[in-house]
Amino acid sequence: MAILKSRAIGRKILRQVRTSYWFWPSTLVLGALCLAALVEWIDTQPGLMRDVLPDWLTAIDPDGARDTLSTLATAVIGVAGVMFSMTLVAVSFAADTFGPRLIGNFMRDRGTQFSFGLLLGTFAFNIVMLRSVQGGDAEFVPYAGLTMALFLALISVFTIIYYIHHVPETINVSNISSDLGHQFSASIRELIAERAKIEVEDVRPALKAQEIGVTLAACGYIQQLDTDALHNCACDSDWVIQVERSAGEFITPHTDVLTVLTVSPLTDKQIKVLQSAFATGNDRTEVQSTAYFADQLVEMIARALSPGFNDPFTAMNCLNWLHAGLQDALLHNGGLRPLTTQRVRYPHLDFPALFAVSFGAALPYTVTDRMCRARHLALTQELLTRATGRNRDVIAALVPALRTGPRERAL
């Protein structure tokens, strides 16, 4: 049971660490402290640094070393505060302009995390070196530490240059939509690859099997669902499990997340094992929820076409990225075909469902703008020429609404 629980909870924790703003800065600070300890040890080796370093680095007294390290530490921590303020302004601007659900994309940005962490690490390194400087009779100047401090200061200068360039790039609307679009397509391709590995078993529940619902003692969104754990548990106990709520859906303690078809009643231990395959949280995430990327692009379309913004070009750009993802769902390695598993039954995202949450969900907003409606129609017709069967019928159903528009339908 502990293994199953740690698998779902562990993945959730890894995602939270990835989207956090403390992990990499904290790691770099700890790394700087370890580096400071190593360099200080090197400095304690008699005559080693004086023989290796040039005279202009070793010709400094304790007072000069203190002044240098103190100046570097003060400058670096001041710039780090400015960088943090710029980051908050950028995140606030993005949340107000493009939607609060996009904050996670900025929090995951490694460039910002490493830039902030490098400056904090440089500050921590200078403080430790400043403590090791000694005057008087036991005079000690950490020449290697001073050299490393100057090197880190130089790296920090280039980091600041990179950061000043990087922050405007992160709030560029084209970069935001393209990042979401690439993640949308990558998630679809990954889903297709994973689905090709699934072996469908011909399993039927026992004749006298009864349906037993399983709930979670939690209220929120399902962030992780360990289907492998459920499959192993169903095989060991000869169950058939129907997953009622998938990743990304909202649940309450009164919502059945599973229905187990079993001959004998479930024990408390078995119920806990099944519950441990789920991890919940306060917000919806993109993990195991490909449609969430489509929702974010649709939200950008809605905001771009709102009266306060009136930006049809951003909306058309988002439509282009949705179209690219839908093409992958339609054509990549046979496309996103429907699948029905027998041992553990749960909804498998297919092309019609993905089309509904992307192009279908964008319809109420694009029909209000002539340019966006024309672009939406052109992209839909292009998909129509490549689709067959039920997928073609789903796409074709959207064409009349795009052709007529709101005024013609009202008349």
From TrEMBL:
Q: Which domain of life is it from?
A: Bacteria
Keywords linked to the UniProt accession: Membrane, Transmembrane, Transmembrane helix
**Which InterPro entries does UniProt cross-reference here?**
DUF2254_membrane
Membrane-spanning residues where? 21-42, 72-95, 116-134, 140-164
Q: What is this protein called?
A: Predicted membrane protein
